[in-house]
Write a structure and sequence with these properties.
Blueprint (H helix, E strand, L loop, with lengths): L1 H20 L8 E5 L3 H13 L6 E5 L1 H9 L6 E3 L3 H9 L9 E5 L2 E6 L22 E4 L5 H12 L10 E4 L2 H9 L5 E5 H4 L5 E6 L9 E6 L6 H9 L2 H9 L8
Parallel strand pairs: 1-2, 1-3, 6-7, 6-8
Antiparallel strand pairs: 3-10, 4-10, 5-8, 5-9
Helix pairs in contact: 2-9, 3-4
Length: about 260
């Protein structure tokens, strides 16, 4: 009987040891990303799930608003911005893991109009942009939202900023600006090429020359409080498989 009790006790201890050593259930990666990444990142996340991982939790919005949320302690494992300014903002406040920071993507800035109401524009100083279209011009909030920051730089470079004063409408993010133009509430808009290409309700008038604004860069980084699973997802975002998805959606990848 004593031998039997010892065997049972040994078995229970062994089971307990095995249970303690079992890996914890993988948690979904929580991602805060710029609105312009919506379609591409959703597809990348689906690929990640098909590889056997939990579906990532994706939150999209203006890089500025998301950065403020991360700063305030919102539960995010990975942050992706549409410019360097807001990644720098979090980096300077110790809210991201600087060692994981990487510039993964690029984009192009374009001038758009409602479908069927496209106008001609010469992307050079001196062109009478104010007379080229009717109504307002929508873009992200200048000085705050990345697309608005790039837009203001381009308009100032082309000397179009002053002629359009009183007609520029700043929105919460690039997708909101796109929606205003789609509905015809703005006669023109400035968005990213990747946003313009997903809509059949807008026409691309022209692309802004690269020298008119700072390079459009998308930095990605793990947050300071990122869970272990996030590192693997960030590696996947840097993989050839993910790069192919981003290219298909119109983004440029550094090696391009």
């Amino acid at each position: 009987m004593r031998i039997l009790r010892c065997l049972l006790l040994s078995a229970l201890l062994a089971c307990g040891s095995l249970h303690a050593a079992a890996p914890a259930t993988e948690q979904p990666v929580r991602v805060f990303a710029a609105a312009s990444l919506t379609d591409a990142l959703n597809e990348v996340a689906s690929q990640w799930k098909r590889a056997g991982h939990p579906q990532p939790s994706l939150a999209f919005g203006a890089s500025s608003a998301l950065a403020k949320q991360v700063e305030a302690g919102a539960p995010a494992d990975l942050y992706a911005s549409a410019d360097l300014k807001w990644m720098d903002y979090l980096d300077q406040r110790g809210r991201i893991d600087s060692a994981t920071r990487a510039n993964l993507l690029g984009n192009t800035l374009v001038l758009i109009a409602p479908a069927g109401k496209a106008f001609k524009a010469r992307m050079q100083p001196g062109f009478a942009i104010a007379a080229a279209f009717k109504g307002k011009l929508c873009t992200g909030e200048p000085g705050v939202v990345p697309v608005g920051i790039y837009a203001k730089q381009a308009l100032e470079h082309l000397r179009w900023w002053q002629p359009l004063q009183g007609r520029i409408v700043g929105t919460d993010d690039v997708r909101t600006a796109l929606a205003f133009v789609e509905r015809g509430e703005c006669g023109a808009g400035i968005v990213y090429a990747t946003d313009a290409r997903i809509s059949g309700a807008v026409a691309t008038v022209a692309a802004f020359p690269a020298q008119t604004h700072a390079p459009i860069v998308y930095p990605f980084a793990l947050t300071r409080d990122a869970r272990p699973e996030a590192a693997a997802f960030l590696r996947f975002l840097r993989s050839p498989q993910a790069a192919a998805i981003f290219r298909r959606h119109g983004f440029t990848v550094p090696k391009d």
